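REQUEST
  id: r-88c1
  op: predict_structure
  target: ABC transporter substrate-binding protein
  payload:
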Amino acid sequence: MTRLSRALARTTALAAGLIVAVAAQAQTAAPKGASDGVVKIGILNDQSGVYADFGGRGSVEAAKMAVEDFGGKVLDVPVQIVDADHQNKPDIASNVARQWYDTDRVDAIMELTTSSVALAVQGLSKEKRKITIVDGAATSDLTGKQCTPYGFHWAYDTHALAVGTGGSLVETGGDTWFFLTADYAFGSALQADVTQYVTQKGGKVVGAVRHPLSAQDFSSFLLQAQGSNAKIIGLANAGLDTANAIKQAAEFGIVQGGQRLAALLFTLAEVHGLGLKAAQGIVLTEGYYWDLDDQARAFAKRYMARTGKMPNMIQAGTYSSVTHYLKAVKAAGTDDTDAVAAKMRELKVDDFFGRGGTVQANGRMVHDMYLFQVKSPAESKAPWDYYKLLATIPGDKAFLSAKASGCPLTQ
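RESPONSE
  id: r-88c1
  status: 200
  body:
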């Protein structure tokens, strides 16, 4: 061995030893056990407004089910669920989160319906070194340009909705689009992601109009959409806004006139509220359906007994995210945020929701999504028998890779 070779070998050995030492130090730096005798999880969402059925109290119950199924304890201390209604207002949500972190010693906040709320709370949680897991909000910016080391995104995002619902309609001839868009971060992100996908497939966006959150009268917006002669009217909204837009579109005879409605974020809860007569034929994308298989049905049966309703992907996703967080705490042997965040990325997600799921470096949980069509009343054979499966969208197609997401942590 030459002098240069020996020097290189010594340098390589030193570097390897340093990496091992740093890794060992990181493992031992976190204090073992729960820091204050309890692991506390906050469910923060809309419980009284336009998204109350979308997640709401149903997500709180799903979180409680996850804790009970985990045994009610982790690291030999109790797990506690607290919850609050953020009223779809980022300032209220931030105040609640700050109170939870500073006074109530909440360890992690989850669900976070409404993208503007989720972005605000995720930003605060980065400052406070606390974990957030978003189930209810959609914007892909959460794991894109506004990603954080402690932020995770679980159930779906605007990119997955664009690939699923947007992609299927373009591929079946819906090549001209007009958007009715909720005027806040979620609507903007959803319209942008669908627009990109539509244009990549050779389609064209001929116009768009924005409406306020919780709009009651969609008539002027629908008339503009009708006048555009677009083949597809993309509803870049959710919850009661989508349901009201669909109801009022029927009054204008929009579908009968040859245009199609694309409910870009529509879940089982909204289909149930709207009814099959009005919702039939709508194509939508979800990450879960209660009648998908035996695993999904087993959870749904217990949830139904508890709430009187079948779960949608937000509620099922909340159960999954709470469970994964507790598994990470147990595996880390501590509730220290950095140690738990590392374990969350390391552990696989394999439950009735995230089958074979993985958590990317940017916090995006990657799992299969499903394209469904709402059945007609004649096709439905039982209560809550609402969907027929059109396609399974593999996770690596539904979601952006960490490298492609724009997350500064992964560039």
